[in-house]
Design goal:
about 400 residues, alpha/beta, Alkaline Phosphatase, subunit A, eight-stranded mixed sheet, 13 helices, 14 strands, about 25% helix
Length: about 400
C-alpha cells in the first residue's frame, strides 16, 4: 500500500452537470498528446448534409439556449447517427442532427460542436494539469441526470434510463447505508434548501443523518470534521440567498453560467486545500454526471450488464440491457500524493466506480455490491508515495 493510501481518511466527490469531456477539456490535447482530446478535424453532418467541424468557440452562457437533448432516445441519435436495427455501430455522428431537433435552426445546431479554449476554464484546466485526468471516464447510461447519479450512489439505476424520481427496494443498499451500517460516516452536501437535492428520493429516508448543506461542508472542512465519504452538489437554480443577495446556479447545466461553476469547483477545492491535515488525508474527485447532449468524439465502450432491462417507450424503439456506457465526461482526481500531470489511460471508469472504490477502501469490499460495481475500475491506486511540495500545489483566488 502506498504512503498516500495509508494516509487516506476521506473520499470526497463533487458531481457537476451536463458537459462532455471534449467540450470542457478537449483542447488540452494540443499541449499534451497523452490527453485523448480533440485534433481539430472532428466533425458531424448537419441536417442539410454539410460537414460541421469542432471549433473552440464555446462561451459561458449565451449558447445552447435550447437545452440539448440528453434523454435516452436523443443520446441514441447522437451516438449512432440515426442508425436503427441489429448490427448498428456507434459513430458519434448524430450530435448536430440531435441539436437541430431542439433549435429548429441549422446554423444554431452547429454550436453543439463548440468547445472551450483552456484559458476560459482556468480552474478546471489547472486541476486537470496538476493532478490526475481520466481519459476514459464515462457516464453510466446514455441518458440524463437522475439515472446516472443513481449509479454513483447504488452502482445501478434499477432499470431506469430517465428522470423519474423513483423509490427502490432494500435489496441493494446505497453507499451511504453501507457506510453507516459499518460504523463509518457519510453525507450528501446539497447546496441549500432552495436549491434542494438532485438525488434519489429513497436516500431521503436517512435524513438528516445523510444530508447537510454546502455551508456545513465548508464548516466541516475548516474544523477537520468531514465525514469519511462526502458527496457534494452545486446550486441547481438561481435563487435568493438568506441575506437577500442572488445566488447563481453553479452546476454548469446549460444555460447556467459556466464561470459560476468554475467558482464553485474552486470553493470546494480551496475548502479542502486550506486545511493542511485534511488536504493530506483526502482524495477529491471532480466529475460530471452526463454529457448534456454535447459532442464528444470517443465511442462509449461495452460494459457488464447489471441485470436490468429498460423497455421500449423509455428507450425509444428497442430494449436496453445496460450493457454499454454513456458519453464520456470530465473527471479529475485530486490529492497531494498524485504526481503533477498524471493522465489515466487504458482503463475504463464510470459512475459505478465511485461506490465500488468507497466500498473497497472503507469496507474492505465486504458490503454487498452490484455486479456492475464489481466489474468497475477503482481509482485510489493513483495515490503514490511522494507528498508534493506545498509550494507546488495551486490555490485559487475566488472573486465574490
Amino acid at each position: 500500500m502506498s504512503t498516500g493510501l495509508k494516509n487516506l481518511k476521506r473520499i470526497v466527490v463533487l458531481m457537476m452537470e451536463n458537459r462532455s469531456f471534449d467540450h470542457m477539456l478537449g483542447a488540452l490535447k494540443k499541449d499534451n498528446p497523452r490527453i485523448n482530446g480533440l485534433n481539430g478535424d472532428e466533425w458531424n453532418p448537419d441536417t442539410k448534409g454539410a460537414k460541421v467541424m469542432v471549433q473552440p468557440l464555446a462561451d459561458y452562457q449565451d449558447q445552447l439556449n435550447d437545452d440539448p437533448d440528453h434523454h435516452f432516445p436523443g443520446t441514441d441519435l447522437q451516438l449512432f447517427g440515426g442508425q436503427k436495427g441489429a448490427g448498428r455501430v456507434a459513430n458519434m455522428q448524430g450530435f448536430v442532427q440531435s441539436y437541430f431537433t431542439q433549435t429548429k435552426d441549422v446554423e444554431r445546431s452547429h454550436q453543439i460542436m463548440y468547445y472551450f479554449k483552456p484559458e476560459k476554464l482556468p480552474v478546471l484546466t489547472t486541476l486537470a494539469k496538476e493532478f490526475a485526468l481520466f481519459n476514459s471516464w464515462f457516464s453510466s447510461i446514455p441518458g440524463p441526470t437522475i439515472c446516472n447519479r443513481a449509479f454513483s450512489h447504488y452502482g445501478t439505476s434499477f432499470g431506469q434510463v430517465g428522470m423519474n424520481i423513483f423509490y427502490i427496494g432494500k435489496d441493494i443498499q446505497s453507499i451511504y447505508g453501507r457506510m453507516i451500517d459499518a460504523g463509518k460516516t457519510a453525507k450528501i452536501y446539497y447546496y441549500d434548501q432552495k436549491s434542494s437535492t438532485m438525488e434519489i428520493v429513497n436516500l431521503l429516508q436517512h435524513q438528516p443523518e445523510v444530508f447537510g448543506t454546502f455551508s456545513e461542508f465548508l464548516a466541516d472542512c475548516k474544523s477537520g470534521q468531514l465525514p469519511d465519504y462526502s458527496f457534494i452538489e452545486p446550486a441547481y437554480n438561481d435563487h435568493q440567498g438568506p441575506g437577500g443577495g442572488e445566488i447563481l446556479a453553479s452546476d454548469q447545466h446549460p444555460t447556467h453560467n459556466v464561470r459560476e461553476g468554475e467558482r464553485f469547483i474552486a470553493m470546494v477545492y480551496n475548502a479542502i486545500r486550506d486545511n493542511d491535515a485534511l488536504f493530506q488525508s483526502a482524495a477529491l474527485l471532480v466529475v460530471y454526471d452526463e454529457h448534456g447532449g454535447i459532442y464528444d468524439h470517443v465511442v462509449p465502450p461495452a460494459c457488464s450488464p447489471d441485470g436490468f432491462t429498460a423497455q421500449p417507450g423509455d428507450t425509444g424503439d428497442m430494449p436496453f440491457s445496460f450493457d454499454r456506457l454513456g458519453v464520456r465526461v470530465p473527471a479529475i482526481l485530486i490529492s497531494p500524493y498524485i504526481p503533477k500531470g498524471t493522465v489515466v489511460d487504458g482503463r475504463i471508469f464510470e459512475h459505478a466506480s465511485i461506490p465500488n472504490t468507497v466500498t473497497n477502501y472503507f469496507l474492505s469490499g465486504d458490503a454487498k455490491r452490484t455486479d456492475r460495481e464489481k466489474q468497475s475500475e477503482t481509482f485510489l491506486d493513483l495515490l503514490g508515495d511522494s507528498l508534493r511540495d506545498d509550494d507546488d500545489i495551486p490555490w485559487f483566488e475566488i472573486k465574490t
